[in-house]
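$ run holo --ligand "coenzyme A" --emit tokens
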Amino acid sequence: MITVRKMCLEDIDGVMEVDRDCFSIPWSRESFMMELESSLSTYVVAVDNDGVLGYGGFYMVLDQVEITNIAVMGKVRGKGIGKSILEALIKLALIGGGKVVNLDVRASNEAAKALYYSYGFKLVGMRRGYYQKPDEDALLLTLSLEEGF
Ligand SMILES: CC(C)(COP(=O)(O)OP(=O)(O)OC[C@H]1O[C@@H](n2cnc3c(N)ncnc32)[C@H](O)[C@@H]1OP(=O)(O)O)[C@@H](O)C(=O)NCCC(=O)NCCS
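-- output --
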């Protein structure tokens, strides 16, 4: 069974494996440790008996939530894990008093864009050349949590 729960220090090895599987510039151990120690940040993992399958997180300043990452191991994509992670993040953001959720996504990332649009995220802008490896624009998406989410 797959469970989504808050990330803890013991999850970091598994989370780094997911990150290496998903991104051309994975985060360092120190970055994850800093996020877990930050009072502004909230991270969750999707786990089963074999370990970490995916993770996601955000930081919140006042009522503004910024999703930093959502990632699911390639071998288990398309099974609803990304949705479960996003739903868990939105629930936790609401509990924490979040009113607006923002995120950046690679312009060509069709799977992630479809996931976010299906939850009502709207395209509000673009950062030219924001990403590296490969160079690419970022789309800025936003979701209001005040409109009866
Ligand atoms: C984006 C990502 C997290 C989705 O995770 P996932 O577990 O495969 O997603 P789910 O199975 O929960 O699918 C949720 C929705 O996403 C969309 N989606 C998922 N895979 C898709 C694909 N290959 N093509 C188009 N849409 C897709 C669909 O809208 C889907 O809903 P549906 O099944 O009702 O049609 C995953 O593809 C991933 O980790 N990618 C690499 C890391 C990344 O790019 N993260 C986003 C950073 S902004």
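-- notes --
Residues 3-144 form a domain with the Aminopeptidase fold (CATH 3.40.630.30).
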